[in-house]
Amino acid sequence: MMSRMTADAPASPSDLAPALGHDLADRRLAILRHIAAGHSISQAAREAGVSYKAAWQALDVLTNLAGCALVERSVGGAGGGGARITAAGQSLLAMADALEQARAQVLQRFGGPAGVSSAAPGLGLGLRTSMRNLWPCRVGALQAQGAQVRVWMLPDGGGDAPGIAARITAESAQLLGLAPGLPVMALCKATAVQVLPVAPLAGAQGLANAWPAKVQRLARAEGDGPREVVARLPWGGSGVGYAAQQAQGEPWTLRTGRKVWLSVPESAVVLAVAD
Asked: pLDDT tens across 131-178, in order?
């Protein structure tokens, strides 16, 4: 039986549908379009404004989502090698074009400008995730640090509240098209959020966010394990995390209304952008 990952494997629209969650907003389909036009991955990377490595990362993600090969690469020969889009890749682009046309028609019907994302105000409504912490933000600044990028985000409605920092790869920052002012969603698992009785010492938590908060709800304590806490954050949102029953070797009391601190490693914060 032929593997679904081979170039000649048939691909139905339902097979390709998972890859359609990625449109021009994160450049993956844009890279595929450039390959279809220029038959070169390196040229596609240049035209999309990303590195060669990021272009390959985009193709890997799309291929995994589609479940079949979208691009075939040829090596050597009179033309020096190149890349061609497969039949499945052509089908994926045709489906993406049809969806974009339908989206533009819906936006026009309801008074929204075609070509401008209307998803920013409700960016999280289309997300289904196990992560319980979802915070709408806008990118404030990007700081390159070697192969990584530190993304500083300003929570919606935050005013002078402390921001949220995330640490991602340079390729991911390129593919997401991150830039100051871009609406994004910051997400993290509740199990990555540590609830503390006092502010962590600088550097004690490594590269971590630290925000003051006020306890809203407490789960019932079970044995000696950590206790789930829902706390109000400075920008008006809530955060879910876990508090150990002892801090620095001493027991401490949790109660509704108590001031606490939430600590989240920068590497545990995930970013999402609207399609």
From this structure: 899 898 999 999 999 999 999 999 987 777 789 999 999 999 999 999
Q: What CATH number labels 133-182+267-271? A: 2.40.50.100
Topology (CATH level 3) of domain 25-108: Arc Repressor Mutant, subunit A (1.10.10)
Q: State both tokens at 224.
A: 């000696």
Q: How many CB atoms lie within 10 A of CB 95?
A: 15
Q: For residue 54, which of 143, 156, 170 has the smallest C-alpha distance?
A: 170
d(CA 206, CA 144): 18
Judged by DSSP in three states, 202 sits in coil
229-255 pLDDT per residue, tens: 999 999 888 899 999 877 766 778 889
Residue 271 in contact with residue 176, Cβ under 8 Å?
Answer: yes
Other C-beta atoms within 10 Å of 170: how many?
A: 18
Where do you find CATH 2.40.50.100 in the chain? 133-182+267-271
